[in-house]
């Protein structure tokens, strides 16, 4: 296994097949097998080398792909299974494939560091040249863009997903996206639909056995459930449990196929979903009713909290939910929705929901096992959507919003003066892995609260919590170089503030406006950022004082906008005043003091006073090395500025050596797409030109241009400068 796969902590080996047979997909499986291994004497059409299984959630796409994988693996074919839920898993999985195809680790390191041919081209060259037949599966590719080329579409066929150019290879994708235009006309599309009544009945019998009734009765129930595999699984699991542990008399517990169907018929008039379309409503209504009956069974066994817990989970964002940190038993017990629930009971409720196929419990293996966010509970998207829109949940929405925000309150920083001691400080790189897990459900919950009618206006304490959580998420997005996403989030939150009628000079609103200015600054919208900060600063001064940490933060960002506009002397003057204030307020070795001094050194260097800048940077570096790791991201950015000074002083060889050392650190490799590390790569290209290596410089600079276009856009000043440097290098 390559180092990348080990770091990611997951396998690209297909999951072990379930103990039950796959029903109703024989023809589909055989069709794909024929595409992988055409009959003797026949040629496979080009479009059959890329196969797409698409359909509603829970319809059996992954199970079908797993059966194909099992059969081809038994025939000696290499089989790889990659979860396409996030870009990190796709990238690490494809790197592992390259390793298995005998690519040297050094070659992989260079490709993934952007120092040679692209990783995509490297892997696909190896695949197309492989002598051994192979099958590559991208599972759950519900966000096709993750498989697309940079700044392109999947249908272009130049990203991770493409058409094999060898008869030895087959690519299989499972997805909800069934549009031919998404996957290209060079792919073969296969809808995975509901099961026929005979096959669906067999699924029920596989799960529940003969105890609930005969084949005809199972067929009748299967027809009532519309043959939806998820509904069949819920019903079959319910009946198996009801007969395995027969609690209550015949009139109390439903134990037969007929009894289950009759109960569904009795409930059908109640209306348990908000209709999206008639076809969708017909398909999913029995699914919801099945889940409700499973929840009734759990309640009958003393787990009444299962229903409110499922509804609570559905009220969080559509993402894995780290339950160890967010589902605090004490806070849950204080809510009327859940009632008294200790750790043991909470564990039992979650396990029971998983046993009844209502949730999945898992571990994010890329995180340390002791991480408080490693253990997650995930709702099937269809489950979450329908439970979230259940009439009872809609009627009690304010109470669920209150409970969700009460639980999320644990993420707020308690002591801003000691950020390194905070468990979830979004500015610290060692907390980013946690925030990658926390941000999606938190964002969903915060935005849902802001959209909840009058609730934000009538619950000021909850509003304060929501605003603070939005600020933390934005800080995380900005810290990991996602300013565009931060802008979208902040604009929605600030629009909600205006809708509610909050004063734009109110403290919490000023905090969001400050982060929005940062997002504009990072995206090169300098005039807008400067104008906004010139309104924020006097408002913060009036509210908090000129030397309050928040006021100083806004003053620093204003100085940076001035610096980025080339008004270096003005920026230097303002930054010297800020640094003096930071010394008084927080001391010479505080994190924010270091950041302000770094900006000051940049302003000095921009005016050509490189020796003075190096002296300042050397002091900063000495302090940072006393308190932070040598490869802390901020430390690396200080070292980058030092190397930049050396380069401009004519000491190109020294600068080049320092830059190579910076970019060889684990942090720089891990944070390859951070704006600070992209800037270091740009300086590396300049140092390479200065030392005569124009070939490598062109490769490095081309990658810088690509990365900046993707993150910052074509018009950002840094993108424009990199493009100009590349044209000049190419003689254009």
From TrEMBL:
InterPro entries: NLR-like, P-loop_NTPase, TPR-like_helical_dom_sf. Pfam families: TPR_10, TPR_12. Gene3D superfamilies: P-loop containing nucleotide triphosphate hydrolases (3.40.50.300), Tetratricopeptide repeat domain (1.25.40.10). It comes from the Bacteria. This is Tetratricopeptide repeat protein. SUPFAM superfamilies: P-loop containing nucleoside triphosphate hydrolases, TPR-like. Residues 1-21 are annotated as: Disordered.
């Amino acid at each position: 296994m390559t180092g990348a796969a080990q770091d990611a902590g997951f396998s690209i080996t297909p999951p072990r097949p379930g103990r039950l047979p796959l029903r109703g997909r024989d023809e589909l499986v055989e069709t794909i097998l024929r595409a992988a291994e055409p009959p003797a004497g026949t040629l496979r059409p080009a479009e059959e080398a890329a196969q797409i299984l698409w359909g509603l959630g829970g319809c059996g796409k992954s199970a079908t792909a797993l059966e194909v994988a099992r059969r081809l693996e038994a025939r000696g074919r290499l089989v790889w299974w990659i979860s396409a839920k996030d870009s990190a898993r796709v990238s690490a999985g494809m790197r592992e494939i390259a390793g298995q195809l005998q690519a040297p680790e050094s070659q992989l390191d260079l490709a993934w560091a952007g120092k040679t041919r692209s990783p995509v081209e490297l892997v696909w060259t190896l695949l197309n040249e492989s002598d051994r037949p192979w099958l590559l599966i991208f599972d759950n590719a519900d966000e096709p863009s993750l498989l697309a080329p940079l700044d392109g579409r999947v249908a272009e066929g130049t990203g991770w997903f493409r058409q094999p150019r060898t008869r030895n290879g087959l690519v299989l994708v499972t997805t909800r996206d069934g549009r031919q235009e998404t996957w290209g006309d060079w792919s073969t599309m296969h809808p995975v639909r509901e099961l026929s009544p005979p096959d669906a009945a067999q699924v029920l019998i596989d799960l529940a056995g003969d105890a609930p009734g005969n084949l005809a009765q199972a067929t009748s129930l299967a027809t009532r459930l519309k043959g939806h595999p998820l509904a069949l699984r819920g019903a079959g699991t319910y009946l198996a449990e009801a007969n395995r542990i027969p609690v209550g008399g015949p009139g109390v517990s439903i134990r037969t196929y007929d009894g289950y169907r009759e109960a569904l018929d009795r409930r059908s008039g109640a209306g348990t979903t908000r209709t999206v379309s008639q076809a969708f409503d017909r398909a999913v209504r029995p699914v919801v009713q099945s889940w409700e009956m499973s929840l009734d069974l759990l309640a009958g066994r003393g787990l009444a909290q299962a229903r409110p817990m499922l509804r609570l989970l559905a009220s969080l964002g559509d993402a894995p939910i780290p339950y160890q940190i967010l589902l605090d038993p004490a806070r849950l017990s204080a809510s009327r929705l859940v009632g008294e629930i200790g750790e043991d009971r909470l564990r039992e409720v979650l396990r029971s929901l998983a046993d009844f196929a209502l949730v999945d419990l898992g571990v994010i293996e890329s995180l340390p096992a002791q991480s408080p966010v490693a253990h997650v509970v995930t709702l099937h998207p269809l489950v979450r959507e329908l439970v979230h829109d259940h009439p009872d949940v809609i009627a009690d929405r304010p109470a669920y919003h209150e409970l969700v925000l009460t639980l999320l309150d644990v993420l707020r920083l308690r002591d801003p003066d000691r950020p390194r001691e905070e468990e979830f400080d979004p500015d610290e790189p060692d907390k980013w892995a946690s925030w990658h897990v926390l941000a999606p459900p938190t964002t969903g919950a915060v935005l849902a609260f802001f959209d909840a009618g009058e609730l934000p206006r009538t619950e000021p304490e909850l509003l304060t919590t929501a605003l603070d959580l939005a600020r933390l998420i934005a800080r995380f997005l900005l810290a990991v170089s996602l300013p565009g996403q931060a802008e979208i989030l902040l604009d929605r939150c600030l629009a909600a503030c205006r809708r509610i009628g909050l004063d734009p000079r109110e403290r919490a609103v000023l905090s969001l406006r400050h982060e929005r200015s940062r997002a504009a600054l990072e995206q090169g919208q300098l005039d807008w950022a400067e104008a906004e900060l010139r309104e924020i600063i006097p408002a913060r001064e009036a509210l908090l004082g000129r030397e309050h940490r928040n006021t100083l933060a806004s003053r620093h960002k204003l100085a940076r906008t001035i610096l980025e506009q080339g008004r270096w002397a003005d920026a230097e003057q303002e930054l010297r005043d800020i640094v003096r204030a930071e010394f008084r307020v927080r001391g010479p070795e505080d994190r924010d003091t270091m950041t302000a001094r770094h900006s000051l050194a940049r302003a000095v260097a921009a005016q050509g006073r490189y020796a003075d800048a190096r002296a300042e940077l050397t002091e900063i570096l000495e302090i940072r090395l006393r308190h932070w790791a040598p490869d802390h991201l901020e430390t690396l950015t200080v070292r980058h500025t030092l190397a930049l000074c050396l380069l401009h002083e004519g000491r190109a060889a020294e600068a080049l050596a320092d830059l190579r050392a910076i970019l060889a650190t684990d942090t720089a490799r891990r944070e390859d797409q951070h704006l600070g590390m992209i800037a270091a790569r740009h300086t590396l290209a300049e140092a390479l030109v200065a030392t005569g290596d124009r070939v490598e410089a062109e490769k490095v600079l081309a990658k810088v241009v690509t990365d900046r276009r993707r993150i910052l856009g074509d018009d950002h000043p840094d993108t424009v400068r990199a493009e100009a440097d590349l044209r000049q290098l190419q003689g254009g």
